[in-house]
Each structure stands twice: as C-alpha cells, then as structure tokens.
Amino acid sequence: MIGVTLTRYLAARFAKTILSIFFTIFCLMFVVVFVEMLRRASDSPDASAKIVALITLMKVPAAAEAILPFAVLFGSMAAFVDLTRKLELIVARAAGMSVWQFLFAPVMTASVIGAISVGVYNPLAAMLKQQADQMEVELFGVQGSVRIDHGVWLRQHGVDGLAVIHATGSAHKGTELFEVSVNVYSQNGGFIERVEAARGYLEPGVWVLNDAVISAPGQATRNVTAYMLATSLTPEQAAAVNTPPQSTPFWSLSEVADNTADAGLDATAYRLQYQALVSRPVLLVAMVLLAAAFSLRFSRMGGVGTTLSYGVASGFVLYIGTKVLSDLGGAGLISPFVAAWSPAIVGVMIGALILLYQEDG
User: Fold this and answer.
1) pTM over 0.90
2) Structural domain boundaries of the chain?
C-alpha cells in the first residue's frame, strides 16, 4: 500500500509540474505570435483583434508540440529538486525504496503524456492549424511571414510530358491554386513553354488555369482564357501534397504518405513525422531519466546549480541530436525509423547508465 500510495503521489506531482511548465510556455508563445499577427493585421481593415486572437489560438497548439520534451525535462528536474529539498525522496530511500522504484511514477507519467500528445493532442492541433492557415490566407492573402516561401511545388508526369508547378498559395485542400506558374517539358526533357495564371483549379484528370499567359521559345506571348494541363492527381493526393507533415494529424499520416507516394512524390517527410510521433513517449522517458541523473543530488552537498546546468545542457544536446538526425532522415541519408528512434533510445540508455553508475556503482 505504501508503494501504491507513493506512486500515485509522485505521478500527480510530476504531471502537475510538467503541465504547468508546458502551459506557461504555451502562454508565452501565444503572446509572441499574437503580437506578430497584430502587426500584420495593421494593414488589413477586416482583421479585428478578436479574429487575430482566434487565429493565434488555433496556430499555437501545433507550434507548442516542439516544446513538450523541454517541458518534461524542466518539469522533471523541478519536481526532483523539490522532492529532494523537502526530504521526501530521502524518506523514501530510508523506507527501502530504490531509485528505480520511485522512478516508476515519473516514467509512467511521461509515457502517458507522450501517448496522449500523439493520439489526442497532435490530431487536434493539426486540424486547428489547417483551419488557421485557411483563415490566414483569406484574411491576409498569404500564409505566415512574407519572408518565407509558403508556396506549393508539384512535379508531375503526364501525357503532355513533365510539368513543374509552383503556386504562392492553395485553398480547398489543394484543389485551388493562386498565382500559378508552370514549366512544361517534353517527354525527352526539352523545354516547351511556361504558363502563368492567377488561379488554377483541379478538375477530374486536368488542371484548369484561368486567364493564362503562355510564353514559348521563338513564339510571341499569347493569352488564353483557359489552359488545360493533363494530370493524374486526385483530390486526395492534392490534399496530401499541400498539407505539410507537421499539419497532418497522426492518424492520417500513413494514408497521406501512401497518397503522396502514389502521386509520384517523395513521402519521406510524412514517414519521418509518423516515426517521430510514435517514438515521442520514449523520448519523453529519456528526458525524465536525464533529469533524474542530474537532479537527485542532495542540496546540502552543494553544487546543485552546476549539476542542474549539466542536465539542461544534456537535454539540449539530445534535442539537437534529434533535429540533426531528422534532417538526415528527411534528406534520405538514413531511414526514417533510425532517424526518429535513435535519439530516444540513446537518451534512455545514457540516462539509465548514469543512474546505474550513481546508485549502484
């Protein structure tokens, strides 16, 4: 009974501390994004503060996912230091509990938080992000910062040859494109013509570009009311192509990856995102073990600040390693499975190794 009661107590303490830190950082991110959105809204008379706040509130949850590992790291360190400072862990050790026994509660807490963030929080945040992006395009005419290319790129093979399509924006799940430019090449790779249009629509088996301007080598530029470009792209594939991996709900990632591959495009980013989400609970467990390795020092022994700084540094190194391997996986240099799971597994092994050395010699 003592073990069960203590486990519940520790789980509640860790969950409360981790969620409090996450909510605090979430609010700070909301303020920063809201101020930036208000700055952009100053040039749009239709953008009221209420609409801007709503768009910001819908955008921030997806962006806040990236801070979850740090929230677990800082929350775990704060909980361990507080429990040690109040001698609660000292009493638990005196009662005969080993470090592995009282680590069970925070490890399980991190695992549950990771599972909920993947299965519930991520799909909700992704859907809100998609709606926010659509509202942002309708309100400002462009998504996000104007200094970043948020355009759509498509590369397709059809009966007309190879076509490289670029659009500054999209709507209706990728079936409508804005400010479209198309470079058309023959089957043997020779350049045929360039087509520019204000809007393009995906119809069954064809892209329809309205009020298009056609430029071809050795020919005068001509205007046409509608330009037809054959395509094998379906509305489902168009939606997949125009939805970035970070804005795709977890439960749809496998399907979107398959649709992207069927469209002849690279689906590595979607498969990498899927593996990264699946491995998230293990990554959060690694953060807990690293926090424990650097936070269990008794405060009266001194050097707590230095030890905690080592813990924060180790968490940042693990996060940077995750990003580096993610970039390598996205470039196709390593498999998505290795890129996503390696940092989590290595982090768990390092944290467990340090604890074994500290506790068991």
Assistant:
1) no
2) 152-244
